[in-house]
Amino acid sequence: MLIEKQFDTGSRKINYAEGPASGPPLLLIHGWTCSWRTFLPVLPHFVPHYHVVAMDLPGHGHSDPLPNPADNLPELAADIEPLIKAKFNEPTAVFGHSLGGKISLSAVAQNPALFSALIIGDTGLFPPEPDTEPKPPSQDGDFVAKSIELAQYCLKYAPTLVEFTQQYERLFGLPADETERLQKRHWLQSYHRCSPELIIAMFGAIPEGKVPEKKLNQGTVNPGQALPRVTCPILLIQADPEVGCRLHNSAIERAKKLNPLVSSVRIEGEGHGLGISNWNTTPLVRAITLFIETSR
Fold first, then answer.
1. Quick one: 43 and 179 in the same domain?
2. Given CB 3.0 to 4.6 Å as the disulfide criterion, which of 83, 97, 201, 224 pairs with 121?
3. How far is CA 23 from the centre of its chain?
């Protein structure tokens, strides 16, 4: 059973869900525009065996927003250390998906002794190789422009969830398949709660709303500097490149050169969601569980 709670870091209140102390600690950190509820498909597998805490990042879910996010993006990782120290009394395994992977890496690199294992889920650690690996949506001008337009719409009108969904559908469309449409609507509930100021700041938009030349600043860390500072085992989980991944082969090879503790696994047949978004989580749960158990 999970209980939703609030934790005051001294700088802001962080929303999180916590399960019983069923085993060693496991912290779950979601991706961009998501919330702790992103992990609903995997929680039934982890809660009986681990002491699970799944947090809402600042500006996401029910956590307080960042003040002046354009100047305070490094604060996205600042709440992890006090939360871990308050909830756990032993080194913690952490799984960060997408943006959560970079934020997790930042936290582990800053205080390695707090962590027993670092699991990074299909995070674009390094830019893809030109002409051989596809660029992420965050480097697509049309995607960026529409995302900024949606955020500015939220700033101006403070829409209801229904209005927000209608605006998203106008800009991006929704899947025709009913099941995929329901999955997208589930994610849009979290997206609707995301701070529009944070979205604009992460894209580097200027006040006039023009499309920025700089790509999405996904997180707060230089992986090339952070990876060598990590002293616990690291698992990189890659989505299937044939379906669509952000963690490319070149990035995995580079990470392994930077830190000999890095290993990797691929979730065949699944895209960036790693099976979470479509509730096909068995391969992901198996990979995470085996890694944690062999890292203890």
1. no
2. 97
3. 24
pLDDT tens for 196-238 read 998 888 776 444 444 343 433 444 578 999 999 999 999 999 9
Q: What is the pLDDT of residue 204?
A: 65
Half-sphere exposure for 72 (CA within 13 Å, toward CB): 14
Out of 160, 175, 203, a domain closes at: 203
Query: How many angstroms separate the CA atoms of 14 and 6, rounded?
Result: 6
Instruction: Output the domain CATH number for residue 67.
Output: 3.40.50.1820
* Spatial CA neighbour of 185 closest among 175, 171, 197, 170: 175
Furthest CA-CA distance within the chain: 51
The mean per-residue pLDDT over the stretch 172-183 comes to 91
- Which helix H or strand E contains 16, and what residues bound it? strand 13-18
pTM exceeding the 0.90 threshold for the entire prediction: yes
Based on the fold, state whether residues 178 and 243 are members of the same structural domain.
no
Sorted by sequence, the CB contacts under 8 Å of residue 293 that are 6+ apart come out as none
Tell me the three state secondary structure of residue 140: coil
- Structural domains counted in the chain: 2
Q: Give the range of the structural domain holding residue 85, as residue numbers without chain letter.
A: 3-131+220-295
Query: Are 122 and 251 contacting, i.e. CB atoms less than 8 angstroms apart?
Result: no
Residue 215 lies in a domain: no
Would you call 115 helix, strand, or coil by DSSP? Answer: strand
- Are residue 104 and residue 17 in the same domain, yes or no? yes
Model pLDDT for residues 14-55, shown as the tens digit of each residue:
999 999 999 999 999 999 999 999 999 999 999 999 999 999
**Mean pLDDT for the stretch of residues 148-158:** 94
